[in-house]
């Protein structure tokens, strides 16, 4: 996974490997949370907020649809 790329192929509930931890860190960065790589309560709550905003199933887990929604929240200059 390259820096800035964080589209998980599966649902991440508790990161099991480095790639998943990096995906969670990238999500935390987009959510302006401390970048721990842990799927903690603050991260889950913030993900639920994004899911609600984008009318996605509100699960609090980082899945592909949520990652894509987070990408839409970032300014264009950060995506390039």
UniProtKB/TrEMBL annotation:
List the InterPro entries hit by this protein, alphabetically. Answer: Peptidoglycan-bd-like (IPR002477), PGBD-like_sf (IPR036365), PGBDSf (IPR036366)
Peptidoglycan binding-like domain segment(s): 35-70
* UniProt-recorded name of the protein: Peptidoglycan binding-like domain-containing protein
